[in-house]
């Protein structure tokens, strides 16, 4: 298989791996996760339907929708969250992005993205009974194949990553800016989804 593949629109993509391990883990994770809110439950069922219909639905080559993984990086001791100013979206967001072939599971994908984009090496995902668990799902439209291409859908699975007290962040090439914000002083350029994720992180980490 070549390093890139071209679809019928002429857009080049990295080929989706054929390994079913990450796909199977996503099915297990979403099957076992039971949200309290009806809207989140509907999203969970929609994500599972997507995975049932798309064997390669974990990867960006799968259009018009694919699973992504993200994490809110928080420092509970200081009551703050780390957000990145995304160059394509133009808003402050949590860390996150596309799954990759080397990710052993969905939680590992979220942790990898959080570590790469925050520059903090000792992050720990919030767990239940010793197992990392999502805290929220969010479906949103993006143009990850290019700003001149049609929108596609990210089916984002969101976690919480706890940073060591006083952690120092290091900006990556994927960000226009990277800053810590007090829970009560989030920037204006955030959307409802980010604010809801931060609120959940604050509640769950004390």
Secondary-structure map with pairings?
Elements: E1 5-6, E2 12-13, H1 21-32, H2 38-53, E3 65-75, E4 80-85, E5 92-93, E6 95-98, H3 106-118, E7 124-125, E8 127-128, E9 131-132, E10 136-142, E11 152-162, E12 177-182, H4 192-205
Parallel strand pairs: 3-11
Antiparallel strand pairs: 1-2, 3-4, 3-6, 4-5, 4-12, 7-11, 8-9, 10-11
InterPro entries: NUDIX_hydrolase-like_dom_sf (IPR015797), NUDIX_hydrolase_dom (IPR000086)
GO molecular function: hydrolase activity
Protein name: NUDIX hydrolase
Describe this structure in words.
The chain has about 210 residues and is α+β, with helices and mostly antiparallel strands. The protein has a single domain, classed as Alpha-Beta Complex (Nucleoside Triphosphate Pyrophosphohydrolase). It is built from 4 helices and 12 strands. β3 and β4 form a beta hairpin. α1 packs antiparallel against α2. The N terminus is likely disordered.
């Amino acid at each position: 298989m070549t390093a890139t593949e071209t679809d019928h629109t002429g857009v080049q993509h990295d080929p989706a791996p054929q390994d079913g391990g990450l796909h199977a883990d996503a099915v297990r994770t979403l099957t076992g996760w039971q949200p309290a809110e009806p809207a989140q439950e509907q999203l969970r069922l929609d994500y599972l339907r997507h995975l049932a219909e798309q064997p390669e639905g974990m990867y960006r080559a799968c259009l018009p929708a694919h699973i992504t993984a993200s994490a809110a990086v928080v420092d509970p001791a200081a009551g703050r969250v780390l957000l990145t100013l995304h160059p394509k979206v133009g808003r402050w967001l949590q860390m996150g992005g596309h799954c990759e072939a080397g990710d052993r599971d969905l939680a590992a994908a979220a942790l990898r993205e959080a570590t790469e984009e925050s520059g903090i090496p000792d992050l720990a995902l919030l767990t239940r009974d010793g197992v990392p668990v999502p805290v929220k799902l969010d479906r949103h439209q993006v143009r990850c194949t290019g700003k001149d291409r049609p929108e596609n859908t990210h089916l984002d699975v969101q976690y919480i990553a706890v940073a060591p007290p006083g952690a120092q962040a290091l900006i990556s090439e994927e960000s226009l800016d990277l800053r810590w914000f007090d829970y009560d002083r989030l920037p204006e350029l955030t959307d409802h989804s980010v604010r809801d994720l931060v609120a959940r992180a604050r509640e769950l980490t004390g």
